[in-house]
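User: If only I could read backbone structure tokens as easily as an amino acid sequence. Those tokens are not coordinates but codes from a learned vocabulary of shapes. Could you go through the record with me and say what the backbone is doing? Here is the record:
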Amino acid sequence: MAAVKEGGGIAIGIGFAVFVLLTLLPFLLVVVLFTFFTIYGMTKGTDFSASTINPAVWWSGVALLVATFAVLLALAVAVAGRSLNPPRRRDRDEPQSARESASTTSSSR
């Protein structure tokens, strides 16, 4: 088995989680849309005709649900990207005043 670099196991885990999320996203969208349509039908459907359905509410619900899933996907990508690109060790370990004094001494030369 090939050796994994330091932090590579975390990257593989995050990659697998993103893959699972992207694979499940269409199924989750179908379930959420079905739930929305069912609840809308139960509250609105006293008559079995198409005239009782308000298309503006119907399409607004679809648009809001799809937009919500898009925002959640963007947040998941942002969190995964942030964890894959940690700050430099020098910046984390060194105090702020030491960085400022180092930058002023190197610029004065």
Q: What stands out?
A: The mean pLDDT is 75. Residues 8-44 form the longest helix (37 residues). DSSP finds four helices and no strands in the chain. The radius of gyration is 25 Å.
